[in-house]
Amino acid sequence: MAFTTNATIASFGGKLLKLSHEAKSTSCKMALNLYLPPQAFQAQKTTSKVPVLFYLSGLTCTGDNCSEKGFFQHKASEKGIAVVYPDTSPRGLNIQGEDDAYDFGSGAGFYVDATKEPYNKGYNMYTYITKELPETLFKEFDVLDGNRVSITGHSMGGHGALTLFLKNPGMYKSCSAFAPISNPINCPWGQKAFKGYFGEENQGKWKEHDATELVKQWKGHLHLLIDVGTGDNFYKQGQLLPENFLAAAKEAGNDKDIRLRFQQDYDHSYYFMATFADDHVEHAAKALFA
Amino acid sequence: MAFTTNATIASFGGKLLKLSHEAKSTSCKMALNLYLPPQAFQAQKTTSKVPVLFYLSGLTCTGDNCSEKGFFQHKASEKGIAVVYPDTSPRGLNIQGEDDAYDFGSGAGFYVDATKEPYNKGYNMYTYITKELPETLFKEFDVLDGNRVSITGHSMGGHGALTLFLKNPGMYKSCSAFAPISNPINCPWGQKAFKGYFGEENQGKWKEHDATELVKQWKGHLHLLIDVGTGDNFYKQGQLLPENFLAAAKEAGNDKDIRLRFQQDYDHSYYFMATFADDHVEHAAKALFA
């Protein structure tokens, strides 16, 4: 058993498992939540499997925030989709300064593999999310269908969802995002993170993890759902830049099936997420059950 | 303007207002949340009003917990019901010891008017919830229909919902509860609170705020929805005693339309609440729109 089950909580007819495991890629114990919909328990009897939606959280969050406030379980329960809520960084690596800022270090892994000392010691959330975590999960939980996986996320996690999707064609059946950091190389949050994880000089690496850069290279059909609130202060401050992403997609001829919705008055909080969570699970369901 | 609006947050098509006001009954500034569904904004134009659901929180909570995690806005938005999330006690009265325990004093007002020194200085949540708050709200917010009000609550707030409903025939169109403290005079939480707020000798007062005692006196039809999780540790510890309530109702011939549902494996948390919030709003809606 790779995972320890620290709690099992009934939720919307299924079970939310609070798990932890020793992860190699991040050099530490990682916590996550796994929501198994009611169909997962029926599936165990019939040997069919349920598809999986990875939800990547934003700055400062753990897997708990969205499990409690995001209401993904509501529609995931109805559709029969498992939801994985990973943490946002390694924890407790004892790197000097890693806990000093809300937007860098712990709680702010940015879904990259750091190349710069000292963060290259374990800040490898890219490998953790795309390889180690799914491989370990799908090995231990037979009921999860590793061939039907989608991805979504919020803010820094929206950046994660978009970049992991765009860097790995075929790995995810669909992608959506809430208020994603869409062009990190051109916003303060992204610049700070990439400087710290890659170094200032390593601009090639920066571009490899920038959704707006990646979408220019995308080949084939691109069907995305992106929601941004017009009352989101981080949007107003230029941290999100979804227009840059859309413009780049348009220039590359890939924008036709990107639904970028500006939601009147909504902010950056889980109140916003909860309101549109059903739509994002529906978006994933269409691809996962196609 | 009796209320200060500290924040306005878009949620499920409506707005959650974070309000505060100087309350006479509790001798302090009280915070609360008011969810206005989308229909409230349409109603302002047509001069029709929306009905109101009071949600009473449990021990340690403020109005924020359920606003963020309870999922009531989901169905309230659809039905066109405003939701009021009050605080659970006065705050900052500087009574010695009021912040020492999670289950007495601040965060634990138990929806009674304290008669015992020193808590009689402001621990008057009964008067606050049944009189001052609704009167002040309905005066300031024209869009709220003071003639169509329902009540619900969780744990200590479930006790509050049941007792306020049973003590005030006609005041509330309907009542429901999640994991209510149903017989406080016979459980440790209730005994501690009533001893502190009323005194050990004042058993008459104790009974006046005990749902199981009150239901014996109820005249007429009684239509209640009560959910309790079988995995709820407080239920297992005998803090809730819903069976006592049901037995008393039965003895009085009032149990026919009480739906006491035991929900398999659910605990005492907001995961439980969120799962069944839709049902409780539906229960209220049937009465509010009858």
UniProtKB/TrEMBL annotation, chains A, B:
It holds the Pfam family Esterase. InterPro entries: AB_hydrolase_fold, Esterase-like, S-formylglutathione_hydrol. Keywords: Cytoplasm, Hydrolase, Serine esterase. One of its GO terms (molecular function) is hydrolase activity. It catalyses: S-formylglutathione + H2O = formate + glutathione + H(+). Coiled coil: none annotated. Its EC number is 3.1.2.12. The keyword Cytoplasm applies. Gene3D superfamilies: alpha/beta hydrolase. It is found in: Cytoplasm. Its main location: cytoplasm. Belongs to the esterase D family. Serine hydrolase involved in the detoxification of formaldehyde. This is S-formylglutathione hydrolase. It comes from Phyllosticta capitalensis.
